[in-house]
C-alpha cells in the first residue's frame, strides 16, 4: 500500500511555514485568515499492486501531475488539493474498505481509480451512501455517483464499423470479430454485431477468447478459415499480438483494428505490421508536435514519465487520468470552497471543457457520465503513429 503519511506531513509542514510567515509579517484579520485556510481533498483508490498495477500507476502519474500543476499555480479558488492514495490490490473487498476510509476518515470530495469494473461496482454503493463521486477507469453500470475516466468499448460499435469500412476500402467488407470473455469486451462484441447488421457489413465469424487462455490457436484457425477483409478486435495487448502473429503466419493480410488502443499503445511497439490500427478516446500525444492541452500535459507530467517515446507517453491511462482530473478541477472551481462531494457531483453533470490536442469536447451531463465524444483511429507501425480518421462515439 502507498504510504500517505509522508505526503500529509509535507503538506502540514508547508502550511505551518506559511502560517509562521504570515504571523511574522503581521498578517490580516482573523476572518481573512480563516477564509484562506483549508484544502480540497481528493482520493485515489487504485490497483497499485497485482497484475493491473501498470494501469493504476499510470493513472496515479496523471492525477499527481495535475494536482502538482494546480497547487504550484496557487490552487483552485485559492485552495490547494491534497491527494490521499490507497492501493486496493485489485481486490473488490479491499476496494470497498478503501472507499469507506476515504469517504469517512479522510473526508475526500472525489475518488479516482478503479481499473477493474468489478472494483468500481464494489465502491459505488459506498460512494452513494456517503455522496462522494467516483471516477472509474472501468465502469460497468451507471450510477449517479459513478463517472467514467476510461474508454467504454460498448460505445465503440458505430466507430468500429466505420473504421472497418475505412481501412478495408470497402462499403460492405467481410468482417471478422474477436472479443475476450470480460463483460465490457462481450458488450463491445454485441454492439459491433448489431451495428454490422444495420450497416450491411457481413460478419463472417465471431470468436471469443478466454482472458486466461494461453493458447488461442482454435479461434485463430476459425478466423483464418473465414478469410475476412478486415478483423475487428477487443483483447489485451499480448492477446492482440498473438492473434496478429497467427493470422499473418497463415497469410491473412487483412487489416486489424484494435478497440483497446487507449492506454495500451506501448503493446504495439514491437510490431512493424502496416495493417495494424487502433482506436483511442483521447488524441494521441506526440511529444515532437504537441500543442495546447497536450503540451500542458507533457509539461505537467515532466520527470514522472519514464520515457518520452510516443507510445510510452500514451500508455497506462496517464493521459485520460490527467484529462479527468482537469474536468473535476473545472467543476470544483465553479462549485467554490468548500465543495462537498454531493455539490461536486451536481456540478460535474453540467461541466464541459475543451482540451486542444487531447479532446475537442470533454464533459459530463445529467444522465450521461461518459465524457468522450469521439473515437480516433490511428495506424500504428512500430513507433510510427498516423491519424486516419475520427468518429463519433455511440
TrEMBL record:
In this chain the Leucine-binding protein domain maps to 41-381
Pfam families the UniProt entry points to: Peripla_BP_6 (PF13458)
| Gene3D superfamilies assigned | 3.40.50.2300
Q: Which UniProt keywords apply?
A: Signal
Query: Can you tell me which family this protein belongs to?
Result: Belongs to the leucine-binding protein family.
What is the protein name stated in its UniProt record?
Answer: ABC-type branched-chain amino acid transport system, substrate-binding protein
Amino acid at each position: 500500500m502507498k504510504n500517505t503519511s509522508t505526503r500529509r506531513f509535507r503538506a502540514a509542514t508547508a502550511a505551518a511555514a506559511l502560517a509562521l510567515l504570515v504571523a511574522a509579517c503581521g498578517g490580516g484579520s482573523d476572518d481573512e485568515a480563516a477564509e484562506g485556510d483549508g484544502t480540497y481533498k481528493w482520493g485515489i483508490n487504485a490497483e497499485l499492486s497485482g497484475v493491473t498495477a501498470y494501469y493504476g500507476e499510470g493513472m496515479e502519474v496523471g492525477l499527481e501531475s495535475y494536482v502538482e500543476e494546480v497547487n504550484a499555480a496557487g490552487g483552485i479558488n485559492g485552495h490547494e488539493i491534497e491527494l490521499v492514495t490507497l492501493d486496493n490490490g485489485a481486490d473488490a473487498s479491499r476496494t470497498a474498505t478503501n472507499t469507506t476510509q476515504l469517504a469517512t476518515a479522510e473526508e475526500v470530495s472525489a475518488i479516482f481509480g478503479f481499473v477493474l469494473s468489478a472494483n468500481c461496482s464494489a465502491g459505488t454503493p459506498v460512494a452513494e451512501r456517503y455522496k462522494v463521486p467516483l471516477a472509474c477507469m472501468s465502469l460497468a453500470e451507471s450510477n449517479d455517483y459513478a463517472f467514467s475516466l476510461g474508454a467504454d468499448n460498448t460505445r465503440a460499435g458505430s466507430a468500429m464499423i466505420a473504421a472497418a469500412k475505412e481501412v478495408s476500402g470497402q462499403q460492405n467488407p467481410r468482417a471478422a470479430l474477436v472479443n475476450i470473455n470480460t463483460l465490457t469486451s462481450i458488450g463491445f462484441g454485441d454492439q459491433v454485431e448489431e451495428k454490422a447488421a444495420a450497416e450491411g457489413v457481413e460478419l463472417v465469424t465471431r470468436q471469443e477468447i478466454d482472458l486466461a487462455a494461453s493458447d488461442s490457436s482454435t479461434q485463430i484457425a476459425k478466423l483464418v478459415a473465414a478469410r475476412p477483409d478486415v478483423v475487428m478486435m477487443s483483447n489485451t495487448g499480448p492477446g492482440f499480438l498473438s492473434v496478429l502473429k497467427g493470422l499473418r503466419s497463415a497469410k491473412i493480410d487483412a487489416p486489424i483494428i484494435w478497440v483497446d488502443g487507449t492506454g495500451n499503445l506501448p503493446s504495439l511497439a514491437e510490431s512493424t505490421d502496416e495493417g495494424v490500427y487502433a482506436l483511442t478516446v483521447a488524441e494521441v500525444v506526440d511529444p515532437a508536435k504537441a500543442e495546447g492541452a497536450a503540451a500542458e500535459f507533457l509539461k505537467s507530467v515532466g520527470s514522472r514519465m519514464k520515457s518520452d517515446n510516443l507510445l510510452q507517453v500514451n500508455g497506462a491511462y496517464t493521459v485520460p487520468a490527467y484529462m479527468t482530473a482537469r474536468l473535476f478541477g473545472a467543476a470544483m472551481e465553479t462549485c467554490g470552497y468548500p465543495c462537498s462531494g454531493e455539490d461536486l457531483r451536481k456540478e460535474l453533470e453540467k461541466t464541459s471543457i475543451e482540451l486542444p490536442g487531447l479532446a475537442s469536447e470533454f464533459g459530463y451531463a445529467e444522465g450521461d457520465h461518459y465524457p468522450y465524444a469521439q473515437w480516433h483511429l490511428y495506424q500504428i507501425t512500430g513507433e510510427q503513429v498516423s491519424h486516419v480518421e475520427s468518429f463519433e462515439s455511440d
